[in-house]
Amino acid sequence: MVPTHERSHFLRRMAMHLKRSAQGLKIIVADSSSLLHRQANERIVADLQGHLDISYRHFECDFITKIHTALCEVETPFVTLCADDDYANFDVSQKCAEFLAGQPDYSCAMGQYLVFWTGQSKMRLANVRNVEHDSPLQRSISIGEEPFASFYSVYRTEVLEDNILYTKTHVDYNRGWAFPEEMLLHLAVLKGKLRLIDEPGYLFGVHDSNTSEIVANIADGDQARSLYHGFREALVAAICEQDGHVSTRRAKRVVDRFYRHLGRNGKRTVGEKLMREYRKVKRQVEVGVGWRTDPRVKHVPGKAEGNFRSIPWMSQAIDDMVNFPNGIVEPSSKVEAARKAG
After folding, report:
1. Is residue 297 classed exposed, middle or buried when 0-12, 13-18 and 19+ CB atoms within 10 A define those classes?
2. Name one GO molecular function term (predicted).
3. H-only helix segments in 54-103
4. Which residues pair with 131 in a beta bridge?
């Protein structure tokens, strides 16, 4: 699933990646854009339909509701999301699905998660790891202690659908989306274990128009406290439901330990959260013009091995991000032709 909103220029760039590497997948573009971007996105998908099994859906609702509604149309047992401005290694996605098919106590699996700052040519490998405690509470604590972005994992479809619905029901995305973000991180591991497939699996692009750079995270004062109270009650209930050995009192202590500040500091932005999320990294490399350092290095500090050029999808993805940092604008001639065609 590819969620998009008012960013046809990034979806147009992503179309190159899909055409190169998404054969054999069923793809849904879940769009909530206004008219001009919507029309452009419809043209992008139409151009891809001769090459890929891809469909377009438009929704007039917030992000969480859009994802849940689109998930209800997914017919495959496993699903993964890829943002319109990011890149996924679909070979690793397939390996994740194959792993999950044989491991019913796992709810999701993912490859290594890399973050690329397009304006600085800087890359980091996030601290993704296995979360495999038998206790749901201990898995939740592990995420609270060292969070990482598991949202773009490969999920059991019914698990992600349930997680999104629970979040939509109990947390108000429109009033403060720090809380749905954190809720989804925990629900992912409360329902089952998480397995890391130790290959580069997802490339997250940081740029000036990231939602996290332009949308405030939570409100100030009383609203922040109210939002936190609702978030805490919902997460505590989820912990107790999944781990029958945990009391409500203990679960509240765990949630307060990691998130009490969200009810106090209403000015924290998503940008700051991203910096916290990626502050513990395994490896940071500078990406030069003529070379690519293999990000799979994780056991030998200070030593780089291999070459990004040996990982074709990543080499192509980085080139796309460097050459088209703000996406690809539709040629005016094509826009005019579409307008004349009605």
Report:
1. middle
2. transferase activity
3. 63-71, 90-101
4. 194
Mean pLDDT of the chain: 83
The CA radius of gyration of the chain, in Å to the nearest whole number, is 20
The span from the CA of 155 to the CA of 284, in Å, is: 28
Domains, the chain, in order of start with CATH, read 1-85+327-342 (3.90.550.10), 86-112+127-282 (no CATH)
Structure tokens at 252: 């509240």
Terminal Cα distance for the chain, rounded: 28
- The per-residue pLDDT for range 111-151, each reduced to its tens digit, is 999 888 877 767 778 888 999 999 999 999 999 998 888 99
Q: Is the dihedral of CA 324, 326, 327, 333 positive or negative?
A: negative
**pLDDT band, residue 284 (cuts 50/70/90):** very low
Q: Which residues are registered as beta bridge partners of 110?
A: 196
Q: What are phi and psi of 22, to 5 degrees?
A: -110, 20
